[in-house]
Amino acid sequence: MEESLMNSLDSGSAMERLEILEGIWDIEIVFPHPGTEKIHGETAFEWMKGGHFLIQKTKLKDPGAPESLIIIGFDADIALFKMHYFDSRGIDRLYNMTLDKNVWKQWRNNPGFHQRFKGEFNDTLDLIEGVWEKSADKDNWEHDFLLTFRKTSD
């Protein structure tokens, strides 16, 4: 979303942008490493009572892959969504996020381990094709993995 438009949104208006995520999605993760299999799973987006936060829960079919929970809210002070990620390994991370014109971006700038994601929705809004990248220095980025979402129900 253009910065001037994001700055004019209140939390409720901004959260309405996330309605296209609501529902259950099959996911597929593809790593570039030789011998790595595709990982399949499911993620569900649902509103917390009150509609101020969107909750994302993910379970992967690979027994070694972590389950995760993400809480998404809007920070009006900086006009960005915030995503707080938690997983079954005990890891928690805080990401910035935008969702505009069917392009979904997430990023975090953490010394030694920067990450960014860009996903694009198809025209019918039931498919998101995205890629995660990582960087040790925020200047040299490398492909981390592909992430595809296919909506299965609202």
Short note summarizing the structure:
By secondary structure, this protein is mainly beta.
Main beta-sheet annotation: 10 strands, antiparallel, barrel
Query: Can you tell me the residue ranges where pLDDT is under 50 for at least 5 consecutive residues?
Result: 1-8
Tally of individual domains:
1
Helix content: under 10%
- Globally, the shape reads globular
The DSSP helix count reads 2
Beta fraction: over 45%
**What's the CATH architecture?**
Beta Barrel
The CATH class is Mainly Beta
Radius of gyration: 15 Å
Structural class: mainly beta
Mean pLDDT, nearest integer? 92
Which topology does CATH recognise?
A: Lipocalin
Per DSSP E runs of 2 or more residues, the count of β-strands stands at 10
In CATH, the homologous superfamily goes by the name: Calycin beta-barrel core domain
Q: So what's the oligomer here?
A: single chain
Order of helices and strands: HHEEEEEEEEEE
Protein name: DUF1579 domain-containing protein
Overall description:
With 154 residues, the chain is mainly beta. It has one domain (3-153): Calycin beta-barrel core domain (Lipocalin), CATH 2.40.128. The chain has helices at 3-8, 11-16, and strands at residues 23-30, 39-47, 54-60, 68-75, 80-87, 92-100, 103-108, 114-121, 127-135, 142-153. A ten-stranded antiparallel beta barrel has the order 1-2-3-4-5-6-7-8-9-10. A hairpin with a 4-residue loop joins strand 5 and strand 6 (92-100). The longest helix is centred in the first third of the chain and has 6 residues, at 3-8. It is globular and about 45 Å long. Mean pLDDT is 92; it is low at 1-8.
